[in-house]
Design goal:
The chain is built from three helices and three strands; from the N terminus they run βαβααβ. Strands 1-2-3 form a three-stranded parallel sheet, sandwiched between helices. The chain is globular. It has one domain: NAD(P)-binding Rossmann-like Domain (Rossmann fold, 3-Layer(aba) Sandwich). The mean pLDDT is about 90. It is about 35% helix and about 15% strand. β1, α1 and β2 form a beta-alpha-beta unit.
Length: about 110
Amino acid sequence: MNEGGSIVLTSGIAGEKIYPGFSTMELINAAAETLCCSLAVELAPLRINCVSPGFVEPKPEAVQDYAHQFPINRLATLDEVAAAYLYLMSNPYITGEILVVDGGARLI
């Protein structure tokens, strides 16, 4: 890895918000976020961060209907989630962070 490089992991809001029937995904996402923080310390000065997306287009109709309850009132686009990865990779002073990109879905 080049000096100043970074690794960006992926989790999801199921690591932070409970959804009935998704216990395995909740465990995996929470583990990825814990790993991010641990590796940020263990591998410093290499930067380790994590993006935690919510629901992303396209999704089944049932999820799209549910998205109208989110504060942003819609699902994320792939470009919006990709921008989070680019932000974490390009900022040389961010490490050990979990960047949530969910339109406020975890708040409801």
